[in-house]
Amino acid sequence: MKKVIEIKNLIKHYGNFLALDNLSFDVYEREILGLLGPNGSGKTTTINTILSLLNYDSGKVKVFGEEITSSSYDIKSKIGVIFQDVAVFDELNVYDNIDYFCGLYIKDKKLRKKYILEAIELVGLKEFTNFYPKQLSGGLLRRLNIACGIAHKPSLIFLDEPTVAVDPQSRNNILEGIRKLNQMGATIIYTTHYMEEVEQLCNRIIIMDKGRIISEGSKEELKKIVDVHEKVVVESSEINQKAIKYLESLDSVECVNYSNNELYVTYNKDDNNLANLIEYFKKEKINFTRIYSELPTLNDVFLHLTGKELRD
Amino acid sequence: MFLHNYKYSLKVLLKNKTLIFWTLLFPIVLGTFFNMAFGNINSEETLDIFKVGVIDSVEYKNNTVLNQVFNDLSNNKSDNYLFDIVLNDEEELIKDIENNKIIGYIKVKEDIKVFIKENGIYQTIFKNVVDQIIEYQSLYENVFEYEQSKYQDIYELKLIGDKLEKLINNTKSNINDTSSNNMNVFMIEFYTLVAMACLYGAILSIYVVNNFLANMSKKGARISISPIKKSVMLLSGLLASFTVQLFGILVLIIYTKYILNIDYGSNVLNVCILSFIGSLTGLILGLFISSIIKKDDEFKISVCISYTMICSFFSGMMGITMKYLVDKKFPIINYINPANMITDGFYSLYYYNTPERFYFNIISLIVYSIVLLVISFVVLRREKYDSI
């Protein structure tokens, strides 16, 4: 597959603080790459460096096969950016804001109008075109922010935590919009510390911490890193020592924990675990109120790799 | 692209109430307060011709000095035309004063007595005129008697005639002095006001430039990654702020000239040139502040307002004494104070008939602006940032 971005051995300091530590990765055409990591892990710095907004100490950054500089106008014309902070003019209404930013890329007025209307449709702001930013809710403002970044139909889009402090409806709308952009052919780099979003959206994930890549791959590949395969939770007041000892003796069980009438059984193998457990309780006449199975998440992966939670 | 950015920069500036207040409304409001505080600076417009009475008597007709002065002050073709005279007997004049047809009358016997019904500006003027005549008459009579006895030639008589003419001229000019050689110091306050308004244009350019700098705003970051040259963005944005600024100055000058009756002299072209270059200096000052201070636009605007107020203070906005003090003791400050250059430019247009001082101020403003512009461009050439 064609490489859209190539980063090699990128190093960036803020004073004495090492923000990017020998970072190397590639981004391929039409993929949605998730940059996952806690706050301060270097996600935004990576994006700003790729965009040539920031100086870096050493390394190489190529976009569309060329080293990007501040005067790489051909490359820049294919890029769209949605920053973490809303970047729109309070003095302009929704339509004018999109028109202004789109106009920096598209000169043809007719074509621009078509693109603006499509962007408004995509982010669901049709009823708010005459509204000013201060009249919009946080979620709608984020959608406007996105529309301003993608109206010119870029083939490479950077989304830097676009759903921070957004209501669930707007979040779903935004995620749906991103999927559509990708289906329309855009390559997307998506940074967030919400693992659910990355799981839903991204084909490939890079997990960052302290300016370094600590792991990368598809979500399935990443989850394989973790020893945990499945976790079964049982709510019951009738769990006895015999049952706990039995479960601990099984080869597929990693550990057993029982407290506050909740039993946690962690498995390291997929062996019809939930069905077998229900069968055992039936046989031993142990009643339970609820029983369910949890598959490992990216948070478990992150926990496994760094020893801390994503949102620490 | 230039026009696209110009159009939207103009729209953004005109819709920003804070910016419009500081650059357009504040100077007008301040000017109105100045005018209220200092009264009618050009009172010629408000002083009407009034009627005075004179009791028709032999003594009046024989009083040459009084006759000559009154004739001149009541001659509607004279530059000193101040009042009309009603010559009548005392009984009729009392009726006239009761019916407000005249503001007062004089009775000439051995001395001159003034009768007025009530106090007021016209009554005060009338009384002062008569008092002045009495005073001068007494003085000249004494001189005349002395000189006549000593020389008795035509030269002395001419001298007295000249002094009498001076008395007539002084009568009106003491009330209203509008000659170009007699500077009304309050004009300086208004010239500093225009200077302040010109420099407040910096607020507009600070706002515009901050919107284009990636390390100053997220909008700047978004614009920086667009395929447009930074110079195109900056020039079109600055042109938009200059347009708003010039419009504001034009409104201010029209308002102060036609509503507050401020005299900018007769050379309209030079007033326009000075306003244009003054506004340009304000614009470049904003660019300079934006490029060297790495803070948000609120901080930069605070710096700009403080700097402008200090410059205006040294130019005489809060009192003409400060301008004289700086002129006399620390003239070096004037060479780096753009507010003084603009104020002094207007002052020279109003007061001096020769253009040297005006052009000196214009050249000083241009040099000052070029220095700031060069520094700004050197700083802005850095297109990448260590942090944003």
Describe the global form of chain B.
elongated
Global shape of chain A: elongated
Greatest contact pair? Answer: A-B, 32 and 30 residues
DSSP E strands of chain A, number: 14
Helix amount of chain B: 55-70%
How many helical elements of chain B?
17
Q: Going across the major beta sheet of chain B, what is the strand order?
A: 2-1-3-4
Specify the structural class of chain B: mainly alpha
Q: Spell out the CATH superfamily of the largest domain in chain A.
A: P-loop containing nucleotide triphosphate hydrolases
Q: Give the number of domains of chain A.
A: 2
Number of helices of chain A: 11
Instruction: Note the gap between the termini of chain B.
Output: 26 Å
Q: Could you give the count of β-strands of chain B?
A: 4
β-sheet strand percentage of chain B: 5-15%
Task: Tell me the radius of gyration of chain B.
Answer: 30 Å
Please supply descriptive tags for the structure shown above:
heterodimer, A: 312 residues, alpha/beta, Rossmann fold, Alpha-Beta Plaits, six-stranded mixed sheet, four-stranded antiparallel sheet, 28% strand, B: 388 residues, mainly alpha, D-Maltodextrin-Binding Protein, domain 2, 2 domains, four-stranded mixed sheet, elongated
